[in-house]
Amino acid sequence: MDIVPLGPGFGAELRAVSLTDVACDDAAYAAARAAFEEHSLLVLRNQEVTDEIQLAFSRRFGPPEVTKVGSQGTGTNFVILTTIGADGKVVPSDHRMAMRNRANQLWHTDSSFKRVPALASILSARIIPGHGGETEFVSTRLAFERLDPQLQKQLENSFAWHDYAHSRGQIAAGLATPEEIAALPPQCWRMVWRNPANGRGALYLASHAYAVEGMEAAAGKKLIDDLTAAATAPGTSYLHQWRKGDVVMWDNRATMHRGRPWPAGEPRLMIRTTISATEGDGVVTMRPPSWQAAE
Ligand SMILES: [Fe+2]
Q1: Which helix (H) or strand (E) holds 165?
Q2: Longest Cα pair distance anywhere in the chain, in angstroms?
Q3: Local structure of 145: helix, strand or coil
Q4: Given this model, what pLDDT does residue 293 score?
Q5: How far, in Å, CA of 190 to CA of 161, rounded?
Q6: 102 HSE (CA, 13 A, CB side)
Q7: Model pLDDT for residues 68-79, shown as the tens digit of each residue
């Protein structure tokens, strides 16, 4: 396996390795896992991707999420990200599917609004528009390391509230359905996720974050907005331009990402698998101390 660095200080392309190699071979998995912990974002190109192969690769890294209510693929291990409707045509821009796609264009990390947050997401390109539709990434590990030590210390001991309805509400009122709101109550997470494998901290931020525990609402929101702006400053991102056969995997503990727009009317189909964070990934350290004591 060759590891070729990609982005501004993070990200790497894995060459001479396939999804099946990682799924079936312990040494290939160990090398891919080490690269994941180190680089936060992995790209594999020219893959022969099926749902089964993608899931077998994903399972290596931990337990796959079951897709939530209200998303395409609900009840399975796959999230279907598309604006192609049931009739095979691209949906109009005011359709719920198109609006949800716009919500994906806000900087976020996947699943911070769930009871169990995500370690990793694995995304494969199945139908790609002629241009646009890239996925853009930043390292929240590097963003954390750029902050002054006093603020780093403050954030290590701060907790933010994350809510799916909040991020969707930025696109349109009522975009999160009552069913989703009932299934996804707000979650409170430490604002820094320290990776147990290497000890490095990363800002844990997302468009889902709306308040900081113990801070007045406007001040907490401003802190989240300022940190997001700093983490996504010009020159800090890696823009992935999708080609057929691409698979991208990222560490939701140490990155944020956003989808980029593409011409309305052009179809795009991406399939995501998502791996839940476990104790070994540091999830227990992310909960407020009162919750940890209760467990
Ligand atoms: Fe996402």
Answers
A1: helix 164-169
A2: 55
A3: helix
A4: 52
A5: 9
A6: 15
A7: 998 899 999 999
How many whole angstroms from 294 Cα to the centroid of ligand 1? 31
The pLDDT, as a whole number, for residue 75 is: 95
Residue pLDDT, tens place only, 130-171: 999 999 999 999 999 999 999 999 999 999 999 999 999 999
Residue 274 is given by DSSP the state: E
Residues 197/174, Cβ–Cβ less than 8 Å: no
Distance, in Å, from the CA atom of 103 to the CA atom of 170, rounded to the nearest integer, reads 8
Average pLDDT of the chain to the nearest whole number: 95
Nearest to 291 by CA among 118, 111, 159, 103: 159
How far is the centre of ligand 1, averaged over its atoms, from the C-alpha of 101 (Å)? 10
Question: Two tokens at 101?
Answer: 């796609």
Per DSSP, helices labelled H in 3-95 are 19-24, 26-39, 51-59
CB neighbours (10 Å) of residue 14? Answer: 24
User: What's the CA-to-centroid distance between 67 and ligand 1, angstroms?
Assistant: 13
CA of 150 to the centre of ligand 1 (A): 30
Q: Give the distance (Å) from ligand 1 centre to CA of residue 257.
A: 6
Which pLDDT score, from 0 to 100, does residue 283 have? 97
Backbone angles phi, psi at 17, to 5 degrees: -150, 145
Expressed in angstroms and rounded, the spacing between residue 104 Cα and the centre of ligand 1 is 6
Phi first, then psi: give them for residue 48, nearest 5 degrees. -95, 100
- Could you report the per-residue pLDDT of 80-128, keeping only the tens digit for each? 999 899 898 999 888 888 888 889 999 999 999 999 999 999 999 999 9
